Amino acid sequence: MTRILMADDDEEFCTLMAEYLADQGFAVDTVHDGDAAVARAGDDYAALLLDVMMPKKDGFEALREIRMRHTLPILMLTARGEDVDRIVGLEMGADDYLRKPANPRELVARLRAILRRSQPPAPSTDADIELDDLIVSRARREALFQGHPLPLTSIEFEVLATLAGAAGNPLDRDSLSEQALGRRWMPGDRSLDMHVVSLRKKLGNERIKTVRGRGYQLVKGPR
C-alpha cells in the first residue's frame, strides 16, 4: 500500500479520511499539529496531506520547514479558501491544494495526480526545449532560466513543460489541466491558475500571457 502522512487537527476528519483512503489502497498515518508534521514528514512517506490551520505551527510554517529538507509531494488542505492562501502555499512549495470540507473522491484524484507527477521519469529521448533564456528538459525533469536552475514543484514543472511544448501558441485550460495536472479542468477550480501565478513570479509576468478566451501562452523569448 502507498503510505502517506495526514497532518490535521480535526481528529474526526482524519479518522474518516484514513478509512476512505485505506479502501483506495493507501496506508495513512496521522498527526494533529504542525510540530509533529515537521518531525514525521520525510522520505518514508509517498505524500503529505497538510492542513493550514493547526496548533503549534500552522501549515505554512510547517510547509516551509519541510521543504528545506524533503521533496515529497504535498497537498494542502484549507478551510479558508482565499486565493492569497493558495498562492502563498504554492509559492512555498505545495504541489496542490484542496478546500475543506473536502470531497473524498476529489481528494483521492488530486493525491493520485501529484503522486504520478512525482514518479522518476522513464528513460526518454525527448529533446530539450530551448526558448532563448529558458531550457526545459523532460528527460531530466529540470528547467534552467537565464542559466540557473528554476526551483519548481513537480506540478509547476509539468505546467511549464506543457506550455513550453506549445510555446508561441495558447493552450486552453482544458488541455493544460489534462496534460499538466492529469485531470479535467472544472469551472471554479483555481489550482491551475495559481500554478501559473507562481510560475509568473519566477519567470516574470511578461513570459506567460493570458490570451482572452483562449487560455495561457508561453512567450518564446524576452521582448
Question: What would your notes on this structure say?
Answer:
This protein is of the alpha/beta class. It has helices spanning 11-23, 34-40, 59-67, 83-91, 104-118, 154-165, 173-181, 191-203, and strands at residues 2-7, 26-31, 47-51, 74-78, 96-99, 129-131, 134-137, 142-145, 148-149, 208-211, 215-218. Helix 6 (154-165) packs across helix 7. The longest helix has 15 residues, at 104-118.
User: What would you call the shape?
Assistant: globular
Query: What share of the residues lie within helices?
Result: 25-40%
| Topology order in helix (H) and strand (E) letters | EHEHEHEHEHEEEEHHHEE
Could you tell me the strand content as a percent range?
Answer: 15-25%
Separation of the first and last Cα atoms: 50 Å
Work out the oligomeric state of the chains in this entry: single chain
**Total helical segments:** 8
Uncertain stretches: none
Question: Which strand order do you get reading across the main beta sheet?
Answer: 2-1-3-4-5
Structural class: alpha/beta
Task: Work out the radius of gyration.
Answer: 17 Å
What is the total tally of β strands? 11
The average pLDDT value, as a whole number, equals: 85
**Biggest pleated-sheet summary:** 5 strands, parallel
